[in-house]
Amino acid sequence: MLEFAILGLLHEAPMHGYELRKRLFDMLGTLRAFSYGSLYPTLRRLLKAGLIVEDDPSEPDDERAARTWGKRGKRVYKLSAEGKERFAEMLADVGPQAYDDEGFGVHMAFFSRTPAEIRMRILEGRRRRVEERREGLRSSVARAGEQIDRYTRELHRLGLEHSEREVRWLNELIATEQREQKERQDGVE
Amino acid sequence: MLEFAILGLLHEAPMHGYELRKRLFDMLGTLRAFSYGSLYPTLRRLLKAGLIVEDDPSEPDDERAARTWGKRGKRVYKLSAEGKERFAEMLADVGPQAYDDEGFGVHMAFFSRTPAEIRMRILEGRRRRVEERREGLRSSVARAGEQIDRYTRELHRLGLEHSEREVRWLNELIATEQREQKERQDGVE
DNA sequence: GGTCACTATATCGCGCCGATACATCAGAGA
DNA sequence: TCTCTGATGTATCGGCGCGATATAGTGACC
Q1: Coiled-coil region(s) at which residues (chains A, B) (predicted)?
Q2: How many A-B residue pairs are in contact by the CB < 8 A criterion?
Q3: In angstroms, how far is CA B92 from the centroid of its own chain?
Q4: Is residue A101 part of a domain?
Q5: What average pLDDT does this structure show over B27-43?
């Protein structure tokens, strides 16, 4: 997931670790924080795999100000051709991880770079997933009184409300996507 | 967190791994699944630490039916004195992990075994945490139009709604707790 | 007799977190 | 001028938990 996010973000511009982390935080908020303890090792891994390369180009005087540093701070990374390719593959490969809480959020944050058809698949897969959760919680909450711990039931009540709300939210998004797709088609014809 | 959950569950009765996992799933639902890949190693660790002991007592003919097995399946664990102590310590030690999404859910699932005072601390800490998130998302959503990616904003909108709803839910819980505490005091006096 | 779903234990690799350490730099305030 | 704080920046370590996978006994249905 972090790999996906890094590759996605580097499409915008070359960046160093700290910046990546901030951008990520802005996009995902508390949904997914990604600590430095995973960020830097992942960067290393991507570097070794050749998916990103160090952008070290002895200063093209272009925004020189940022890197006043002393002896080698700031390591700026940019996407390699292989990295671009890999990101495209990951976009196309819509697995179950794209439907769970964290994976879905990360995927959605990159929807602007995601083909409409794949956006649709993810949105609908997510909806199915949340509907299942909702049904489970529904029956748990309905199976009232008897046996279930009171606090557990409260927990399930909140979960149920969240699920219901998210399904509605997804329905709106899906409707919007469909409307826009139709407009695109009408525009072409 | 898993350690906490296992120790908490074993207060009810001795159990084997599979059963622990099912009970856990029933309590936390999709909030926190805990796979076998973490459950069994954790059980081992707790065993080695002496917090749980194997309950191997050559059949007290008490529910014999369940263990028809052949050659040693089913390893039943029960709490040791140290385990009980440890759980009590973990209950009393309310750190930031008790306020985040997953930790809070697990703690709340064991509220029936948690002193009222600590329940209060956790509830209020969680509320503070969620309010912070809410404020962050609020300003992000309000800072409309300009610059922010459309899908990212949708993500933040949903997050905001969830935060608002959870704060309300927490307020109710806290109010209930306070009411009950008052009743307890009145009853005593 | 087959096969299906459930019960049950276990391991492996690896992604990610939290804590921690260590630097530089900008601005505020004494 | 000095110092302190807070943001910027890179990095490592131990350990938790996940997903995939292997193995196997049990009960029920057809």
Answers
A1: 120-180
A2: 79
A3: 14
A4: no
A5: 90
Chain B residue whose CA is closest to A153 = B27
* Backbone dihedral angles phi then psi of residue B158, each to the nearest 5 degrees: -60, -45
**DSSP labels for A124-155?**
HHHHHHHHHHHHHHHHHHHS-SSSS-HHHHHH
For residue A179, the surrounding DSSP H or E stretch is helix A150-188
- Arithmetic mean of pLDDT, B105-134: 95
- What is the per-residue DSSP string for chain B? -HHHHHHHHTTT--EEHHHHHHHHHHHHGGG----HHHHHHHHHHHHHTTSEEE---S--STT-GGG--SSS---EEEE-HHHHHHHHHHHH---GGGTSHHHHHHHHHTGGGS-HHHHHHHHHHHHHHHHHHHHHHHHHHHS-SSSS-HHHHHHHHHHHHHHHHHHHHHHHHHHHHHHHHHHHHHHH-
Helix (H) or strand (E) holding A32: none
Main-chain phi, psi angles of A150, to 5 degrees: -60, -45
Q: According to the model, what pLDDT value does residue B69 have?
A: 43
Q: Are residues B84 and B130 in the same domain?
A: no
Residue found by looking up tokens 């007290």 in the block:
B60
CA distance A161 to B39: 29
Same domain, B41 and B100: yes
Q: Do A165 and B158 touch (CB under 8 A)?
A: yes
Q: pLDDT tens for residues A90-125?
A: 999 998 899 999 999 999 999 999 999 999 999 999
CB contact under 8 Å between A150 and B27, yes or no, is no
Structural domain containing residue A183: 115-188
State how far residue B48 is from chain A, nearest Cα, in angstroms: 29
Residue B133 CB closer than 7 angstroms to strand C?
Answer: no
Q: How many whole angstroms from its chain centre is CA B15?
A: 18
Q: DSSP secondary-structure letter at A113? A: G
Q: Is this prediction's pTM over 0.90? A: no
